[in-house]
Amino acid sequence: MLVRPGSLVSDNHLTLLDSGKEYFPELIRQINQAQTEIYFETYIFYPDEVGRTVMRALQQAASRGVYVHVITDWFGTGMRLCRLLRREFEKAGVHFRVFNPWFYRGLARQHRKVCVIDHQHAFVGGINILDDFRYDYSKKQRFLNAPRWDFAVLIEGPILNLIQQEVEAFWERVGHMPIRNRLRQYRTSFKRTFAIAKVSLAGFVVRDNFRNRRTIQRAYLRAMGRARREIVLATPYFSPGRKFRAALVSAAGRGVKVTLLIGIGEFWWQDAIAKSFFPKLLKNGVRIYEYRKTQLHGKVAVVDGVWATVGSSNCDGLSLFINHEANVVVRDTEFAATLCERIFSGVAEAEEIHLDDFNKIPWYRRFWYGAAHVIYRVVMRTVTWGDYN
């Protein structure tokens, strides 16, 4: 049976990891046990105490004869740190590549956070390599008041076959790959077959700018379109296209309880764009909460207590239409219940936005929200050749 990225494969074991406090110890443990091969992808690799610990584990694995491949993003990590990482990794025998330096491949960023070890364990999620207390962008304030809130999943099982092939193919594409080989790889990716059982549990969903331009958005739209009871969605940045927003409104109109938890306070312009959608969403019954305790960085959702997703893709134009992203999609009531409980713990600490309170905001601020969305929409439709919809 032909199984494309995103198809759900059975008999997997998945462990939800809440932020760096759970993710980094397990990541280090698995790297330290590696015997043959590691593929590691991240957007930000910052060499603070946490980053140095991960770096040493990868270097020590290479010294044991493990083939270690690391990809980081030129923009996310920064040019200076990419040079530092290259020197230190290559000195230890780690194969290191940087995605899209100087934007020579366009605006796309390598935003995936994936690690595959010995074809037996994989990590997929939204957690970058830096301390949970460290801001990942702001230069004015170096540390957060509370640990950054994020998620990842440790995966074992048949779905690793697909994840392994994807990370191997991405490693080749990031390198200097002849155009003939690149086209051959793309053709091959459409013909791959995997064993699939009758009961489906987990899938690996990627977004790129050739084979899988709308894969992650389609996964969301399909799940929200089939929702009958509840949609719970948490995202740091909320600026999706019209179809995504319409799916939330439609679900609420069917009587589905829709809860939207949004990060706030990181980028003023992103906050303004998100707020431009509030009136229509609130009028149609969507409950909106702003999370202000710390930086919300998790990109997660649960639908009807069965379908769940964890990954790197924000619900914004950059993630859904430009960047390289990776999510895991799960159909499992126990996993969904655990994730839903974690999300609602954040909802309990967030501030609910009511339509009456929103309407009391001064008119010039509400005008700015709308203007910010118009500008954003024009820019996104231009750079995505009309895909942002």
TrEMBL record:
PROSITE patterns: PLD. It is an enzyme of class 2 (transferase). This is Cardiolipin synthase B. Residues 106-133, 292-319 form the PLD phosphodiesterase domain. Keywords: Cell membrane, Lipid biosynthesis, Lipid metabolism, Membrane, Phospholipid biosynthesis, Phospholipid metabolism, Transferase. It comes from Oxalobacter vibrioformis. One of its GO terms (molecular function) is cardiolipin synthase activity. InterPro entries: Cardiolipin_synth_ClsB (IPR030872), PLD-like_dom (IPR025202), PLipase_D/transphosphatidylase (IPR001736). The active site is at residues 111, 113, 118, 297, 299, 304. One of its GO terms (biological process) is cardiolipin biosynthetic process. It is a peripheral membrane protein. It catalyses: 2 a 1,2-diacyl-sn-glycero-3-phospho-(1'-sn-glycerol) = a cardiolipin + glycerol. The gene is clsB. Pfam families: PLDc_2. GO terms for cellular component: plasma membrane. Belongs to the phospholipase D family. Cardiolipin synthase subfamily. ClsB sub-subfamily. It is found in: Cell membrane. Catalyzes the phosphatidyl group transfer from one phosphatidylglycerol molecule to another to form cardiolipin (CL) (diphosphatidylglycerol) and glycerol. Gene3D superfamilies: Endonuclease Chain A (3.30.870.10). Its EC number is 2.7.8.-.
